[in-house]
Amino acid sequence: MNERLLTLEDMQKFIGTEAKPHVLHVEKELVRHFVEAVQDPNPLWTDEDYAKATRHGGTLAPPHIFCACMTIARCSPEAGVIPIPVPEVPLPRENTLEGEEAWEFFTPLRAGDVITSRTKLTDVKRREGRLGEMFILVYEAESVNQRGELVARSTNTIVNY
Amino acid sequence: MAQQVYYEDVAEGQEIPALKKHPTRRQLVMWAGASEDFYEIHYDTDFARKNKLDNVVVHGRLKAAFLGQLLTDWISPDGALKKMSCRYKGTDPSNEDMSIRGTVTAKRVEGNEHLVDLDIRTERPDGSITTQGSATVSLPSRGA
User: Fold this and answer.
1) ipTM of the modeled complex
2) Which helix (H) or strand (E) element contains residue B116?
3) Which pTM does this prediction carry?
């Protein structure tokens, strides 16, 4: 680790870099693992009889499943490393915190859907703050289903220091 | 499930029914598996201490999922979650009560959609806010 530290200018060259597209098969078991982890007992996610009687005509995957397993978290499960949205882009400093996130939902998700998400680095800023020198990295993702319909957009900001 | 909420039932300033959570370390491990976020600060006390934390902390995105649950509990089955955002302001230890809350900030009709904006947050037992954000949902209308 005797290389020089990456600067803001170095990092800005990575703006636009896209991660390898992430493909997720939404299956009932995936939804079950998710709702059990969250302890979210809403019958719309798992109870077919209940869900059939609603306007949806069947169970949905919860929109907040995007908080777990799409575009952002399923990236770099290495020891001692926070998940990074675009692993192709290096982090300039050693420590990372989750900053903020935003999601926009369009088409409901159902078991059987195949979701392809594309995530790219869209902005890098440098700031002096509470933690000293901080880099703010912004990633944006777009997810479409097997019919090409837009399912969700998400923005993820991490703080690297 | 509670009865379906309609746009006409909602008023600015209204608190929606809060969600109570108590994330145990077991739940954090389940979340790590479900989300594939295996960062050790969320389940390994030694690792967390090396990272200057007193103990393991709740995953930010688990708190975001709790916010999603808060909102979809309130609007299901005929409402839709349109947007949600949050900022991770502070860490939460495991094995502590957490309150997930939302307050209606605005209502508006756009085209044929009946939209409601909310402030959303997670709170520790002392009332400090560790996750804060906003959301937009659409609700069914009694007139439609």
Assistant:
1) 0.94
2) strand B113-123
3) 0.94
